[in-house]
Design a protein that fits this description.
Layout (H helix, E strand, L loop, with lengths): L17 H8 L5 E5 L7 E4 L4 E5 L4 H16 L7 H19 L2 H10 L4 H8 L3 H21 L1
Parallel strand pairs: 1-3
Antiparallel strand pairs: 2-3
Helix pairs in contact: 1-2, 2-3, 3-6, 4-5, 5-6
Length: about 150
């Protein structure tokens, strides 16, 4: 099946619930199913069938974050997860997922309220701790890059 153009996720918003995200994905050329995945695997994307599997044992917050992560793989038509290239793809997906799910103003507000406690910030923003840690790495990288150039 040939692509008709770029795969966009413009309608996917950080404020959406998992249910709203699932409804939104009905407009995309991807199939999403629930499954019992192997230990340690929360989600999986297969480009050949354009199918996303989400582990059914996850909480709604975890499912929400995993769905966005796997949709990023779909958006880029990712086909591999092994080796150095696979690591780069995974890092890109994690970075883009954090940027998609974390609103900068909401993050700043939560960081102030919870005095930088990553777990509390994650709870407030309805994302996993991993998403907050990935977002903080982005902030640290941007801050370090800014200081190095100014």
């Amino acid at each position: 099946m040939a692509d008709k153009g770029p795969r966009l996720l413009d309608g996917l918003m950080s404020t959406m619930t998992y249910g709203q995200m699932r409804c939104y994905t009905d407009t995309l050329d991807v199939t999403i199913s629930s499954a019992l995945l192997p230990e340690g695997m929360t989600g999986f994307y297969d480009e050949a069938t354009r199918t996303i599997l989400i582990d059914r044992r996850l909480t709604y917050c975890q499912k929400r974050c995993t769905l966005v992560h796997e949709l990023i793989h779909w958006q880029h038509a990712d086909t591999t997860r092994s080796g150095v290239y696979g690591s780069r793809i995974e890092n890109r997906a994690r970075r883009e997922t954090a940027l998609k799910l974390v609103d900068p103003i909401e993050y700043q507000t939560a960081e102030t309220i919870y005095e930088g406690d990553s777990y509390q910030i994650a709870c407030e923003l309805d994302v996993t701790l991993q998403i907050i840690q990935d977002y903080q790495r982005i902030l640290d990288t941007n801050h370090s890059h800014y200081n190095a150039t100014h």
